[in-house]
Amino acid sequence: MSEDQNKRVNEHSKDEQLEQYRADNSGKKMTTNQGLRVSEDEHSLKAGVRGPTLMEDFHFREKMTHFDHERIPERVVHARGYGVHGHFQVYEPMTEYTRAKFLQDPSVKTPVFVRFSTVAGSKGSADTVRDARGFATKFYTEEGNYDLVGNNIPVFFIQDAIKFPDLVHALKPEPHNEMPQAATAHDTFWDFVANNPESAHMVMWTMSDRGIPRSYRMMEGFGVHTFRFVNEKGKARFVKFHWKPVLGVHSLVWDEAQKIAGKDPDFNRRDLWETIENGGKVEYELGVQMIDEEDEFKFDFDILDPTKLWPEELVPVKIIGKMTLNRNQDNVFAETEQVAFHPGNVVPGIDFTNDPLLQGRLFSYTDTQLIRLGGPNFHEIPINRPVCPFHNNQYDGYHRMTINKGPVAYHKNSLQNNDPSPASEEEGGYVHYQEKVEGRKIRQRSESFNDYFSQAKMFWNSMSPAEKEHIISAFCFEVGKVNSKDVQQQVVNVFSHVDAELAERVAKGIGVNPPPKDRESDETFTSPALSQENTVKTAATRQVAVLADHGFADEEVKQLLAVCKEAGVRADIISPALGTVKGENGTELEASATFLTADSVLYDAVFIPGGQRSTDSLKARKAAKDFVSEAFSHYKAIGASGEGKELLTLAAGTESGPGLVPDGNHEQFLKAVAEHRHWDRNI
Question: Percent of the chain, pLDDT > 90?
Fold first, then answer.
């Protein structure tokens, strides 16, 4: 490789590479795909003005054929996705732990593309369904593409990849009626859960607030599996990957999530798009948990079991770098739909373990892309193309873009000096970690995988009282929609092994028999890191609805808008009609939305300024009262000042309580906004 080819990648290299593929039609003349200029695009070629269309109309045939083939098969899972570009920088050299070059130099910005997604629903489903979320990151490193393909939950439903088709068949819409869409509140999913208790831990996470994140920007990411770091000396360590959002981890409430699905099914993708379009950044810190090989068996769980996590209190997360997402995609199909991730895309210094779910994924992802993207050359699609050169003897196939020269396409050869030739480890060649493996061929799982309930109980132990209530409510909703009483009873019986109170309350809520006593796990360990109550809390990037009509208190609103802007909070004026709204002293503000086009579920908090005329107008409108009442019932911060307290009292039934700031104190209001929700509010 030449010195020029070997130079370090910077954050612009991927953009520069993609530039040749970008197309801007502004000011251009229309052509066919072969470059022939087109003189007419409104009418097909006919034999006479009312005659038949002629087959020789090549422009019509090309245009229609392309349209007929515009769609590719959507992903079986993770079909509903959204992508964004950015870069990653390591904080300090990780030489002690791994030889991966992109984890060595803090000055290098490695380009990344991230695809966020839901799992169960089709491409047209809503963003805010209760589901696990995908968090897949493609690093365009100088050593090749590295894909960290994870979820917002650190564990999975199953332990062996051979069960994956069964899981997906169970959670997808039932085949006889293709219902329900993007939901697991149906018989086949819960029948699977009841009969495959290894799923208990993941189900606890999915039924928790983690299943309905407030934003992709406020969502953790996990590599799920146990991988290996290998350093230059060949020393290996087991490693798990974590993405920690700088804004903290926050979620919706279930009633709110359902309403948002109707009001704005694009809620999470819109939030991501608008944040970046408005100049904001989306930031995550990359953390790793590491276990020395000699400590592999010192825990009371198997570290290779994908239904288990490593508690952060036992294995601390070392923060090693930051990812900044700052550029929206140019074309959703070309980038988000065609991006192809694969956990087998690694670089020297990162290797695999014997996790049986991971081993299956190493086959499945490539196999999936072959049918989705039409053949073996999907790596040449711009969004998938590495930024470093690639050379091999893999020729031809559908959609080949590389034009290989010369007669030689095999190894070894003498006609071309045996080029391309393998690289040694010293030259950057990938060498698999030499793990010693012995054993008989057997279809069986290790007995160390047999504990299904201890970590599910640990998760329950770690929740705050409010979070536990949400989990109970989620079970009652989801299992309550199951038609089979037998399946409902089985589910309750299974989760009685997790916690007796949980199972008993769910049984009561769905009308089945209480489970047998004294079955729950005796796990007492608590991991505070698992509770969203123990996360970063900031008002930055939150969205506040300011309810105002003509006659609002001018100075009050101007001060509020200034304070919000300084804190990085977006404040929108919501009024009965679009256009200019005049204050009591003549100040004019533009209404961002109306009570018809906006809704409290689309905002993090509400503020009601004073001004008697404005307040009287809002008090007379049911929509305004509902706006405040709903925000109150969703535990959001609500501020008011002057006469605005009248609307607060009318809609919420009180002007005092957790998260209510009735005295116009803007600083206190923003502190209440930063808390995200006020669970101790008596509703």
Answer: 83
Query: Which structural domain range is residue 477 located in?
Result: 461-522
Tally of structural domains, the chain? 3
Find out whether 365 is annotated in a ligand binding site. Answer: yes
Using CB atoms within 10 Å of the CB of residue 31, give its burial: 0 to 12 exposed, 13 to 18 middle, 19+ buried. Answer: exposed
3-state helix, strand, coil in the chain (%, to 5): 30, 15, 50
Same domain, 509 and 548: no
For 412-438, write each residue's pLDDT tens digit: 999 999 889 888 999 999 999 998 888
Active site residue 497: no
Q: Could you give the 3-state DSSP secondary structure of residue 378? A: helix
Residue among 145, 151, 345, 377 flagged as catalytic: 151
78 is catalytic: yes
Instruction: Flag whether 443 is marked binding.
Output: no
In a domain, 474, yes or no: yes
> Roughly what angle, to the nearest 10 degrees, separates helices 465-480 and 254-263?
60
Element (H, E) at 607: strand 605-608
Q: Residue 85 above 90 pLDDT?
A: yes
pLDDT band for position 10 (cuts 50, 70, 90): low
Q: How far apart are CA 216 and CA 209, in angstroms?
A: 14
Q: Confirm whether 624 is domain-assigned.
A: yes
91 is known to lie in a ligand binding site: no
Average pLDDT (269-287) is 96
Chain-centroid distance, C-alpha 243? 11
In the numeric block, the tokens 């010693």 are attached to: 436
Last residue of a domain, one of 343, 358, 380: 380
CATH code of residue 648: 3.40.50.880
Residue 667 has pLDDT above 70, yes or no: yes
Confidence of residue 5 (pLDDT cuts 50, 70, 90): very low
Pick the range with the lowest mean pLDDT from 136-140, 164-168, 208-212, 416-420: 416-420
In degrees rounded to 5, what are phi and psi of residue 254?
-60, -45
164 annotated as ligand-binding: yes
284 is in an annotated binding site: no
Active-site annotation holder among 78, 186, 470, 666: 78
What is the token pair recorded at 142?
A: 């100088």
| Domain CATH for 129 | 2.40.180.10
Is 277 part of any domain? Answer: yes
- 188: enclosing H helix or E strand: helix 187-195
Q: State how beta strands 227-230 and 236-245 pair.
A: antiparallel
Structure tokens at 275: 């944040």
